User: What shape does this take?
Amino acid sequence: GDAIRYGGALHRVRRARGSAKDVECRDCEAPGFRWVLVGPATHEEDGKPYSLDPEAYVALCARCHRIGNNA
Assistant: This one.
């Protein structure tokens, strides 16, 4: 089959873990906004690293995502 690309990997995260909006932000406990990769990247597409493992992502709120608290 075709390799899973960036969008497919994020779809896999949402399917496995639900919407980031239903999870508290890892850094400040506000409602989540987006799943962000914090685990090891196993793939890259157009300079965007991603992983096929849904557990490699955490939910961040819009503020923490914007200020870069995803390290």
About this structure: The first helix runs from residue 6 to 17. The chain is about 25% helix and 20% strand. The helical segments are 6-17, 62-67.
